[in-house]
User: Which sequence fits this backbone?
């Protein structure tokens, strides 16, 4: 709650940065409910390849998405060192499998640079909301709702 | 709480009242003439009307009003609730229910029907009773008779305490009120009853004074000597001059509650010049009404006289007020003195009384509380977690401590016991009697009996049998269909019944009972029973069975559960519409239930369905398929078998059949159909689960291995994911992992070639 | 000191409406579900005024009013009856039983408060 007040007054935001393969991404910390270790998921029939299956999150069924595969990179091979970011996308909870959480960043909006005009696919354009230059690294800000468009979730 | 919440409460209450109404009417129909039954029926309608009025639900109010009027005739024995009358009333109850639903959900109602019933109800209220004796007096609007003055109860004068009471202090001369406004003269003579009913002359005068400028004259001429003064009687009368622009109606409103118990004259004073205080044969009283307000009165007077004046005024006020309120003040004093010794005995008596009252309350029903269903569901979920957690704990203790420290094991066993008990108790919270669903059925029976011209009596038994709310909610639909079927197809027409030597009235009996952890609902009719020849022929015509198939009676009877099977020669509007008993069977199975029929030609049929007591947990068979753990609902499984190579037969390009007792049953590889593996597994290495699904079709589901049977807590997949075809829900096993629960029906349908692809899924239906 | 109102009505809807209306008007409200309960709680509730329905299970409004009037402490307490307009006969019976006044259903919050004010000091 105090965070909301802060973000409103300083126009800043807190982002959680994580590594997927050799790239870094970040999402708004407000959409992250918790971070937990990898546990084997139960496979779902007829699910897309990036859908690793479902796990038990304190009694609720939580779908786990391989973010690497979802973002068009090499499918992950989950190990105990992998991390699941439990995020809230609209009314549903979803687990994102990433390699590691790297940072929590507090930035102001002016630090977010427009997405460079090099991306090839419409899909990448749709989820990338800009890039950040932090200590010589490049971190791509992504929007979760764009990665899991509602139509697709409801299509099934 | 806001109005919307109260409205929600109102509709909940309506549902209860409607149930009360119907069950009361049905009792009357069975010949019950207990006045309390009639009262309860009347109250139900009255209550709905009252609430509906508060929310401006005019249609509901006007119908309820007519209904109530007719019921009042029954209540006051002016209308005998014979069968014809009750027929109208039961229909009216249905319309009232429709109107209530329409008011809640904004739907429309059959207006012609409700108008027709209003006419019928009014006719009943007017004494136009079919079959009723002509001697029955036509009920007329009862004209209120003037209340006979109730004699005040005799009061003992013993112990009467004299009260200081001076009449000498009433001063003359109040200034006449300002005359710019119309002035009314009000003569107000309270009767003793005024006080006995909790009205106070002083309060009326206070309210009157708020209307404008007023002067009051109190006539105490009727006051007897103290010895003769009855504390219960009224002796004062008042003449009031009130200058107000509020009008006579405002004055009448002040006396609204008192008008029966006083003589009241209100007249407009035309000519103020003729008015003079001296001409009145009354003592003008400087009546200071501020005594009734919270602030003390401020006396204005000459300084040296102030104290005396104040005290005199106080006396006057006291005298006026206590005189006006004789009933409350004087009486209390008198009686408290007289009653003093008796009071000691009172506590004992009142204790005995309250004990009796408590007993009465207990017999009226155990106390209940209303709880938001969401809260109960949350509790049930949490207990589900507890059960899983406990199982996980047990499992890990066993794994880590093979030889088992006895104290830990004992503790675990106790924990397990407690968790079970908590789970059972929590489930019991949501358990509800099937009564409301059964009650709805009586309406269905009435409607279909009407449509088919059959005469039907519905008997319900065991309606207090409890089952989880989740089951109750889903019970109504299949049950409705079965009842329709029983009346439409099961029972014969009155003519045929009479010809068969039966009574013209058919009987449908609906029974609920608990049997080995399940609820069993039986629907029996005394109709013609299943025409097996006809069913058999139809099945042959529809290629359901071979022309020379050798079927037992039971097998023939159960053919009616096949998809699209209907024996009615013409599709009737009632149980037609292409919806057959197959749909009923399917929805019962979807609830984890089973349904059977047994029929006796000429004597009727009995449908028996057995359902789990809850949908929150399920008895499942835990199996392994392609390294995944799955749960198959136990209710779907007919038997399990270990296929032998000789029993497996290839069929077509990639179909395989298994022969079971000389019949061939298609084999379905669950792992393949769920896309868990690319090629079919070898049936001989696995286990076949013979399942029954939609339309009674059997399939052998191939799984790799059976792990065991257990009760699992059902978890929604839709909450965070989406509906997955072929999967009914998920559950969490003892090791904390999620296992999927198979939807046997869709798996079997998929094996018939229907796609299991998400686009083709039944998400919308789920 | 808040005035205390005892309401007696078997309808949950009406009870809730009374509660909201009376609380908003600054009264302290004690509620009973029927005449029997009304009489049971009477002493403890110690109300300044009573508002009661007529049609109730176990003990109706008439019986309840008679019961209150038999209690010496409350024989002169103002009792308002919730009634429907059509019930001239009932109004009459209620008066015979000892009702002080009546409130016509569906009650209008203002009228309810007015009526209570009218019969209480």
Assistant:
């Amino acid at each position: 709650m105090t965070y909301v007040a802060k973000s409103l007054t300083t126009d800043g935001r807190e982002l959680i940065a994580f590594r997927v393969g050799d790239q870094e991404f970040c999402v708004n910390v407000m959409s992250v409910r918790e971070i937990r270790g990898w546990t084997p998921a139960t496979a779902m029939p007829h699910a897309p390849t990036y859908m690793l299956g479902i796990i038990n999150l304190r009694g609720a069924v939580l779908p786990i998405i391989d973010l690497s595969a979802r973002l068009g990179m090499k499918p992950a091979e989950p190990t105990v060192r992998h991390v699941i970011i439990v995020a809230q996308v609209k009314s549903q909870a979803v687990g994102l499998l990433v390699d590691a959480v790297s940072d929590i960043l507090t930035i102001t909006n002016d630090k977010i640079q427009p997405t460079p005009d090099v991306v090839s696919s419409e899909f990448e354009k749709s989820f990338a909301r800009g890039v950040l230059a932090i200590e010589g690294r490049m971190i791509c800000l992504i929007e979760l709702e764009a990665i899991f468009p509602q139509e697709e979730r409801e299509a099934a | 709480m806001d109005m919307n919440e109260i409205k929600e409460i109102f509709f909940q209450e309506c549902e209860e009242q409607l149930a009360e109404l119907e069950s009361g009417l049905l009792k009357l129909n069975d010949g019950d003439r207990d006045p309390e039954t009639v009262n309860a029926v009347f109250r139900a309608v009255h209550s709905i009307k009252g609430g509906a009025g508060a929310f401006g639900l005019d249609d509901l109010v006007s119908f309820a009003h007519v209904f109530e009027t007719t019921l009042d005739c029954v209540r006051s024995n002016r209308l005998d609730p014979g069968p014809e009358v009750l027929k109208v009333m039961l229909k009216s109850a249905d319309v009232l229910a429709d109107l209530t639903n329409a008011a809640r959900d904004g739907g429309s109602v059959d207006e012609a029907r409700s108008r027709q019933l209003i006419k019928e109800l009014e006719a009943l209220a007017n004494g136009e009773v079919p079959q009723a004796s002509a001697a029955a007096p036509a009920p007329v609007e009862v004209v209120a008779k003037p209340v006979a003055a109730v004699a005040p109860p005799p009061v003992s004068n013993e112990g009467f305490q004299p009260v200081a009471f001076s009449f000498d202090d009433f001063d003359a001369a109040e200034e006449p009120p300002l005359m710019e406004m119309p002035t009314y003269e009000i003569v107000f003579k309270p009767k003793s009853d005024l006080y006995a009913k909790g009205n106070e002359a002083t309060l009326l005068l206070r309210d009157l004074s708020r209307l404008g400028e007023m002067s009051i004259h109190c006539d105490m001429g009727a006051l007897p000597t103290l010895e003769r003064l009855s504390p219960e009687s009224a002796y004062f009368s008042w003449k009031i001059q009130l200058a107000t622009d509020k009008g006579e109606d405002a004055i009448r409103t002040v006396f609204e509650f008192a008008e029966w118990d006083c003589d009241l004259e209100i007249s407009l004073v035309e000519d103020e010049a003729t008015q003079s205080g001296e001409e009145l044969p009354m003592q003008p009283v400087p009546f200071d009404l501020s005594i009734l307000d919270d602030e003390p009165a401020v006396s204005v007077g000459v300084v040296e006289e102030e104290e005396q004046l104040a005290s005199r005024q106080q006396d006057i006020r006291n005298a006026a007020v206590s005189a006006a309120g004789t009933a409350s003040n004087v009486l209390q004093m008198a009686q408290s003195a007289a009653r003093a010794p008796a009071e000691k005995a009172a506590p004992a008596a009142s204790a005995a009384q309250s004990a009796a009252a408590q007993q009465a309350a207990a017999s009226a029903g155990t106390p209940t509380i209303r709880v938001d269903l969401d809260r109960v569901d949350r509790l049930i979920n949490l207990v589900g977690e507890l059960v899983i957690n406990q199982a996980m704990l047990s499992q890990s203790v066993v794994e880590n401590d093979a030889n088992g420290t006895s104290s830990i094991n004992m503790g675990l066993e106790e924990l397990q016991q407690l968790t079970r008990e908590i789970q059972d108790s929590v489930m019991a919270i949501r358990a509800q009697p099937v009564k409301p669903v059964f009650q709805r059925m009586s309406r269905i029976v009435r409607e279909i009996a009407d449509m088919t011209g059959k005469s039907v009596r519905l008997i319900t038994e065991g309606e207090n049998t409890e089952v989880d709310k989740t089951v109750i909610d889903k019970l109504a639909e299949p049950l409705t269909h079965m009842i329709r079927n029983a009346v439409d197809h099961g029972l014969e027409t009155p003519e045929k019944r009479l010809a068969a030597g039966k009574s013209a009235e058919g009987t449908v009996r609906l029974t609920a009972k608990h049997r080995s952890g399940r609820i069993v609902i039986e629907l029996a009719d005394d109709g013609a029973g299943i025409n097996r020849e006809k069913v058999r022929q139809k099945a042959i015509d529809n290629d359901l069975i071979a022309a020379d198939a050798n079927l037992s009676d039971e097998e023939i009877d159960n053919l009616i559960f096949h998809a699209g099977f209907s024996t009615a020669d013409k599709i009737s509007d009632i149980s037609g519409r292409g919806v057959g008993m197959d749909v009923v069977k399917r929805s019962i199975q979807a609830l984890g239930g089973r349904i059977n029929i047994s029929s006796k030609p000429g004597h009727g049929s009995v449908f028996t369905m057995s359902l789990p007591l809850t949908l929150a947990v399920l008895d499942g068979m835990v199996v392994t398929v392609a390294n995944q753990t799955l749960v198959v609902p136990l209710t779907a499984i007919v038997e399990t078998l270990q296929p032998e190579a000789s029993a497996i037969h290839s069929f077509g390009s990639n179909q395989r059949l298994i022969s079971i007792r000389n019949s061939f049953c298609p084999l379905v590889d669950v792992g393949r159909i769920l896309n868990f593996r690319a090629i079919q597994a070898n049936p001989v290495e696995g286990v076949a689960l013979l399942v029954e699904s939609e339309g009674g079709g059997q399939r052998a589901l191939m799984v790799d291995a059976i792990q065991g049977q257990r009760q699992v807590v059902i978890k929604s997949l839709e909450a965070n994911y989406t509906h997955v075809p072929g999967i009914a829900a998920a559950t969490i096993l003892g090791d904390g992992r999620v296992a999927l629960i198979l939807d046997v029906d869709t798996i079997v349908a998929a094996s018939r070639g229907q796609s299991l692809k998400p686009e083709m899924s039944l998400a919308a239906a789920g | 000191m808040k005035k205390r109102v005892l309401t007696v009505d078997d309808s949950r809807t009406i009870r809730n409406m009374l509660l909201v209306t009376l609380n908003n008007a600054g009264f302290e409200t004690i509620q009973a579900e029927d005449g029997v309960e009304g009489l049971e709680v009477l002493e403890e509730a110690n109300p300044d005024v009573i508002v009661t329905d007529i049609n109730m299970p176990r003990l109706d409004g008439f019986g309840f009013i008679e019961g209150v009037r038999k209690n010496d402490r409350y024989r002169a307490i103002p009792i308002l009856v919730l009634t429907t307009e059509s019930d001239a006969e009932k109004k009459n019976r209620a008066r015979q039983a000892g009702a002080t006044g009546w409130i016509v259903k569906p009650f209008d919050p203002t009228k309810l408060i007015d009526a209570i004010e009218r019969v209480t000091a």
Remarks:
- Helices of chain C lie at 12-24, 35-45, 61-70, 88-97, 109-119.
